[in-house]
Amino acid sequence: MVTFAPADFVVLGIFMAGVLALGFSARLRENTTLQLIAAGRSLTLPLFVATLVTTWYGGILGMGEAFDSYGLATWVILGLPYYVFAIAFAVWMARRVRGAEQISLPERLDRCYGRSAAVIGALLVLLIGVPAAHIFMLGTLINLTTGLPFIPSALIGAIAGTLFLYRGGLLADARSNLLAFAMMYLSFIVILVAAIAKYGPPGEIIANLPLDHRSWDAGKGIWFVLSWFIIGSWTFVDPGFHQRVVSAATEASAQRGVLISAGFWVLFDLLTVSTALYAYAAMGSGHGAMLFPLFGSDLLPPGMRGLFFAGMFGVILSAMVGYTLVSGATIGRDLIGRLRPGLPEATQTTLTRAGIGLATLIGFLLAIWIQSVVDIWFIVGSIVLPGLLIPTVAAYATKRTPSGGVAVACLVTGFTAALCWYLLGEANLLAAKWDPLMPIYPGLAGAFAALTAGTLLQRARRTR
Question: What residues make up the domain containing 63?
């Protein structure tokens, strides 16, 4: 159980006051969706890097949960793929995304494929953007530090943490991310130094891990690892990633900022996986998402314990706020606004603010239903990614993109195939030999089949 001294509450209180002060210090220059969602496309490089790093790394408790289950393979499944795809995004997509006129992924799909593709894409974007995992983590930390039951803890965190969005939008989020960015690194440097001082260098700790926790694949085989690696391509379709890239001041700063952010993610993974190693060795298995909080409470003295929790609170809060904003924009602007074309700009901004509230509610309900960070990542990623990946990548390609009908077929077929495979597996209706095949594979196969069939049909029509 986590125990807090008065000094810990003071440190945590000062940090939260700083985050809220920075958030509420921002005010929209104009009452437009461009200002609310994309900060007028004016984020400087430091603000861009801080908000991208903290938002994209919001699943801090998930790293502890993953190490509890998979050991050192956590770096292989939750680290390496994201570096690869972040660098690929920076090299191939960052300038194109920033240079496009559209400020959201569904808006880009609309421009390339038409309204039907945009609406379906917005529904899928909402599924991967809704902040369920972050609300779950924030509720967990509030529950541990205050003793409140989980459900009211999650509700308080979800509501209180997003209030400044209604006033300042992305700019408010980005300003608060500056403090969260500094604290996330400081907090894990502090606990890792304390762990090394108490338990010694990591070599001996690694040697005493169970065999599957020392394995590169956690003893689960290549298909398991490959599934997680493919999920890393989430980077290409993630609405929060797109939102921040389009909000950078210039195309050059967008590309440079993604590359710099990838370096910071490598550094933070080194800190978190190393800390998880010591936590697992000290406390054993079975702690899941509680691994970091319990280890910090046990290892650190008063004051330092509060600083460590402030770092975790900061990175989770940053991601929750960021994805709540992008989900609110998806609901208000990309769904309702697209189904009711011609709405005034002020009305779209109001709908986006209402969407923020609805996204908070949806995330809260999902958080209390699926109480596992890793499960939320894996299930949602495996089902939604196959539908979005091909149309999104093609929308930024320089060559001819698929037709609207083909794009819709890819969106629907990829998602439906993955969802059906997942449901069959949950109902134990798959033959044993197919059980290791994750939903992402049938989903991608369905999307590629739709792309191939649609392309051949297009060519046949053109040759008539």
Answer: 6-386
Tell me which DSSP letter residue 341 carries: T
Rounded to whole angstroms, the Cα distance separating 439 from 254 reads 33
Buried b (16+ CB within 10 A) or exposed e, 35-66: bbbbbbbbbebebbbbbbbbbbbbbbbbbbbb
CATH of the domain at 192: 1.20.1730.10
Q: Which two tokens stand for residue 152?
A: 């009211």
Short-list 126, 34, 33, 122, CA closest to 339: 122
Q: What does DSSP assign to residue 407?
A: H
Type of residue numbered 291: L
The separation between CA 84 and the C-alpha centre of its own chain, rounded to angstroms, equals 16
Structurally, how many domains does the chain consist of?
1
Residue 409 resides in a domain = no
Token couple for 436 = 């290791």
Q: Is the pLDDT of residue 327 over 70?
A: yes
Please list, residue by residue across 176-188, b when 16 or more beta carbons sit within 10 angstroms of its beta carbon and e when fewer do: bbbbbbebbbebb
8 Å CB contact between 299 and 315: no
In whole angstroms, give the CA distance from residue 353 to residue 329.
8
Q: What is the pLDDT of residues 393-423, one digit of tens each?
A: 999 886 767 888 999 999 999 999 999 999 9
In this structure, what DSSP letter does residue 93 have?
I
Q: What is the pLDDT of residue 195?
A: 96
Q: How far apart are CA 317 and CA 162, in angstroms?
A: 9
| Structural domain contains residue 274 | yes
Residue 248 is given by DSSP the state B
